[in-house]
Amino acid sequence: MPAARRAPLGLLALGAMVGAAAILPAAYLVVVIAGDLSAALEVAFSSRALETLLRTAALTAAVVVASVAIALPIGWLTVRTDLPGRRLWTVLCTLPLVIPSYVGAYLLVAALGPNGMLQEALGVDRLPSIYGFTGAWLVLTLFTYPLVLIPLRATLRRIDPQLEDAARAMGRGPLEVFRTVVLPQLWPVLAAGSLLVALFTISDFGAVSILRFQSFTAEIYVAYQSSFDRVAAAALGAVLVVAMLALLLVSSRVRSSRRIHRLGPGTLRPTQPYRLGRWRWPALGFCSLIVLVAFVLPVGVLIYWASKGISTGSTSLHTVAALGGNSLLIAVWAAALGAVAALVVAALAVRYPSAATRAIERLAHGGYALPGILAALGLVFFSTRAVPALYQTIALLVFAITIHYLPLAIGPIASSLVQLSPRIEEAARGMGRGPAEVFRTITIPLARGGMMAGAALVFLHAMKELTVTLILSPIGFKTLATDIWTQTTYGFYEASAIPALVLLAVAAIPVYLLSEQGAAPS
Amino acid sequence: MAESVTQRKRLLAALLFLAAVLLGGCGFSTEDSGGGSNEPETEGITLYSGRIPAAIGPAVDMYEAKEDRDVQVRFAETADLAATLVEEGDASPADVFFAQEPGAIAAVAEAGLLAKLPKDIVDMVPARYRDPEGRWVGVTGRARVIAYNRDVVEESELPRSPFGLTAPRWKDRVGWSPASSSMQEYVTALRARYGEDRTRQWLEEMVDNGAVSFPDNVTIRDAIAKGEIDVGLINHYYVAQAIAAEGSGYPVAVYFPPGGLGSLMLLTSVGVLESSDRKPEALAFVRSLLSGQSQAFLTSSSKEYPLAKGVEPDPSLSVPIAKIPVSDSSLVDLEELQGTIELMKESGAL
How confident is the model at residue A69 (pLDDT cuts 50, 70, 90)? Predict the structure, then answer.
């Protein structure tokens, strides 16, 4: 590894700005905690907080393991084998990401819950309970595993096949080649994807509350909704931030311990796909099962409800179109801003590793572990005091959502930079180009795949975002997600199905692009 | 080469998409085209509402039409809005806060953010339905009831009060929502009436008897309708709404337990922000909410109890309002609430 170089000052300054912006919600926690330190410490170090933290950690670990267990075979099957319909499976297996966790949870209850559709269809008296750990684990896994799958596929496609060929030539079997040659190259991207799944799991509130799992975020909501105790809520939020930092540390250890990029020329020899032979049937069965449970089933329930909703005439398509426009407006801006900000952070962390750039990368993750209510209140606190003119404007809303979901974009961009040899950039420098020019002409174009992926992930989550939008949007501004919330608050599920389907359809566009990203040109 | 052409096409598509959104965004749709929320350039007032549009829409429309003023409404969870108001402090753009749950408005009042209401408004509501210091008034009331599946349970089988739900025959059949503020209010009232020990005993017996925890009233109601559980402790009007939507075949019915604190009245309430620079308009809005016509709008479809003096509840509400107890203090005391939460956590309910 070449000795670490000093980051260009301009880039460093930009990175510091991004880090400072992203840390605002966490800074708010500090302000509140400082107001009553002893009470905050008592809550943060209570045995109840510890128990809840352990329970949440167990859930998070289970979701991460299951997500990798689903994503790894699907990624390998769709990239490296002759699985029939690879393109289609790629899109279908990425689509569950468009389903918001709260929608996924109530759909799961409707489908698999007590006296739900499955039980009716089977005509049995009782099914195993889906509430508690099992249900939360199932829903969070099924709707977040694509966060591992997407970057994994991109990496699998870029892996140099010559290593594998060499290993095979030396007589190793396919499984052994996978274990000794392919898997080690996948650790960084698996770590990055798992980090996103883990952070999503610890910050989720929608799914766990519907499925009655007492997670850490549920505890934070109890602090707000029951006791209106902002100090307790902030103290618990701070515990989440610390947990997030620990996760980040583990993830970056894994990433930096394995540094892999091709040294050869810039062209990849097309890989020879593995022939599945008879194994194609279990492979197809596995993919079908996942798609059935994580996509076909929930969308089927929504379409059924929507048909009932249309027949009762409760939904105006004109309204839904306007809501969709608002959702798009926020999501596109957040995605564009998020990709640019994440590029700055990722380029600093990957290309110019130092204490300062690592700190910036960690700061940039500041808000993602926090549940929406804390992220929103942090910005309420700072913007009403510092920039009242921007309070509850589109600009502030986009800013809030961008910093909240920034880590989603950092991962894929960092992965694409890790795989891109710094020697190309060094060569350009050697030919007399300035750092800014190299960044513009070499780094950005070569990291474009990662930037597109990062932008798409931010877009998706911004489309689904609820709590921050309710509090920070301009007054009267409604999105598809807020409309779904309005309808489901009183149990009007049929009425919520149409905005939910429109949300899914719009969110499917970037998912399609994401899955195309990994598709080899034929 | 083919690769770079498709990439260029993709980039072009992305740019077009972006342009379309940005153009569309220039005229983003909100209910009003009112400008920045801090400049009093419109005649309107800003309402933070913990109640959904369907619940308050007609009452707001009536005020707008009558007074020829705009009401801009921010809808969100009541507790989230209360927390937001506390963080906003004096800089809040809100003029009026309409809370769905009782604790939230007390928290905002406690933070010193609500203005004292004038006597004429306070006098529109009986003393037991308002803040003794006059910072907020109740608007409508929701009774805590036992909801039951009438295909499975006869009304005559139901106990005289929720204390009876700890009997063995109700094992694993009862749903409740310990995390919801309405349930917590009920427990607070139990503590005030029957003391810590009796309340703790009831909570523990409920837990031992397999009471199923749901996140809120709606999910309990739906679980009863699906036969997941047979009875549940909820607010009365959720059932009225479902019957209105599903028709008379809806299997869930409500029962007002006559004994003890059987059916406690919980208030939705309204207050005016001290920081409002449009107090006269805000107060006019509160008066309007308490007018006979508004009270009818607010309660006709939801079957809530109107709280303004001289307004009669919907005839389908067979239990007279005077028969339904309000918590002994009739009010929400935050320290009491804290004690309730402790008790519920200790007894394993929460």
Answer: very high
**Total domain count, chain B:** 2
Range(s) of the domain holding residue B271: 45-141+265-319
Across the interface, do B77 and A389 touch by the CB < 8 Å criterion?
A: no
Three-point CA angle B47, B52, B55, nearest 5°? 100
B78/B132 same-domain check:
yes
Q: What is the pLDDT of residues A389-423, one digit of tens each?
A: 999 999 999 999 999 999 889 888 887 787 777 78
Q: In the predicted model, is pLDDT for residue B253 greater than 70?
A: yes
The C-alpha of A219 sits at a distance from chain B's nearest C-alpha, in angstroms, of 10
Cβ under 8 Å to B: A residues 486-515: 486, 489-492, 513
Task: Tell me if A91 sits within 8 A of A515, measured CB to CB.
Answer: yes
Residue B174, strand partner residues: B231
B254 within domain boundaries? yes
Partner-chain residue, chosen from B52, B87, B104, that has the shortest CB–CB distance to A490 = B52
Closest by Cβ to A490, choosing from B73, B226, B241? B241
B243 and B232 within one domain? yes
| One domain, residues B146 and B259 | yes
Residue in A closest to B76 by C-alpha = A470
User: CB A228 to CB B79 under 8 A?
Assistant: yes
**Measured in whole angstroms, how far is the alpha carbon of residue A177 from the centre of its chain?**
30
Structural domain includes residue B244? yes
Using CA coordinates, name the residue in chain A closest to B32.
A476
The alpha-carbon gap from A237 to the nearest alpha carbon of chain B, in Å, equals 15
Q: Which CATH number fits domain A9-260+278-517: 3.40.630.10, 1.10.150.120, 3.40.50.300, 1.10.3720.10?
A: 1.10.3720.10
To test the contact with chain A by mutation, choose from B29, B45, B173 the residue with the greatest count of A C-beta atoms within 10 A, namely B29
Instruction: Find chain B residues with C-beta within 8 A of A467's C-beta.
Output: 76, 80
B73 touches chain A (CB under 8 A): yes
Residues B137 and B150 in one domain: no
Q: What is the pTM of this model?
A: 0.86
Residue B93's CATH number: 3.40.190.10
Does B342 lie in the same domain as B220? yes
Query: B28 and chain A: CB distance < 8 Å anywhere?
Result: yes
Q: Are strands B174-176 and B265-272 parallel, antiparallel or unpaired?
A: unpaired
Cβ–Cβ contact B25 with A under 8 A: yes
Report CB contact under 8 Å: A470, B77. Answer: yes
Same-domain status, B115 and B161: no
Model confidence pLDDT, tens digit, residues A91-141: 899 999 888 888 888 888 877 777 677 777 777 766 777 788 998 999 999
Contact A101/B at CB under 8 A: no
Mark whether B86 and B178 lie in a shared domain. Answer: no
Q: Are residues B94 and B177 in the same domain?
A: no
SS (H, E, C) chain B: CHHHHHHHHHHHHHHHHHHHHHHHHHCCCCCCCCCCCCCCCCCCEEEEECCCHHHHHHHHHHHHHHHCCCEEEEECCHHHHHHHHHHHHHHCCCCEEEECCHHHHHHHHHCCCECCCCHHHHCCCCHHHECCCCCCEEEEEEEEEEEEECCCCCHHHCCCCHHHHHCHHHCCCEEECCCCHHHHHHHHHHHHHHHHHHHHHHHHHHHHCCCEECCCHHHHHHHHHCCCCCEEEEECHHHHHHHHHHCCCCCEEEECCCCCCCCCEEEEEEEEECCCCCHHHHHHHHHHHCCHHHHHHHHHCCCCEECCCCCCCCCCCCCCHHHCCECCCCCCCHHHHHHHHHHHHHCCCC
Closest in B2, B24, B92 to A521, CB measured? B2
Q: Which of A24, A42, A225 to mutate to test the interface with B (most CBs of B within 10 A)?
A: A225
Residue showing tokens 């996103």: A196
